[in-house]
Sequence to fold (324 residues):
Amino acid sequence: MASTFFRRLAKATPIAFGGQGKSNYGGFRIPFGAIAAASGGISYLYYYSSPNLAHLDEVKQETGPKVALNSDKWIEFKLQDTARVSHNTHLFRFSFDPSAKLGLDIASCILTRAPLGQDAEGKTKYVIRPYTPISDPDAKGYFDLLIKVYPEGKMSQQFASLKPGDFVEVKGPIEKLRYSPNMKKHIGMISGGSGITPMLQVIEAILKNPDDNTQVSLLYANISPDDILLKQKLDFLAASYPNFKVFYTVDNPSKNWKGGVGYISKDIALKGLPRPNDDTLILVCGPPGMMKQISGEKAKDYSQGKVSGILKDLGYTEQMVYKF
Fold:
């Protein structure tokens, strides 16, 4: 029964990556591999056997007795089921103690790692990759990852080789934005490709809380209509909750496409985002070319860095923008 439900979920989850080769985003040639990496803010980290792991943002330790994650050590999670969503994208469901929650913060991600042989000194070498689960953080006993498998993707190839019953090492949560209900009157979001996953965390946290009155506006850019990740879910939420609006734009529209065409421009941002204000927050997550054009990339030390690009031109300050 659970397996059947999981496969139905996969069929109802359009994937955000399609086509071949590279996409041109606002004059930048973007490899598709960069899009998959964007949701975590990095592509790959290599980790050699050591107790010290350098990560991007602050780690928040969860101390509750019924939390599956641990921010101080790697924990194995068993693959319960997998379902193909497209020719190269899969849903992976991992299970744990059914009385426990994963322990995921809003908004945060997890780190996954897999061994990649040994270094010159004989120490185990790992590839480490951040992912944002798409399952409800309050769900007990499982979490879901949506992963596109790339031919040269070191971690995604590891996932592709997994079979039910296999294990993956996970650590976290890695805190990104510490969200609290009604922290801002209006949150604007600009997302590209798999950068939708942290946005979805925040969106669902707001919409499922009847006491949270935050208005949310999402601008979501993709290659083509078929590439839009979780479109059915986003459309359902937009139709069900008056405080959530979504606008899609694609580089390569189909014949019957009725959304926007092209990358997110200053005009689209001006029409779709809340105005600069102390009660406004703009969240940005996408491939490097998009980040550079919209908000500026993070600093070299992975801090937020200065705001540049379209958002700066429109008057948003560092206090009004958060880069995933």
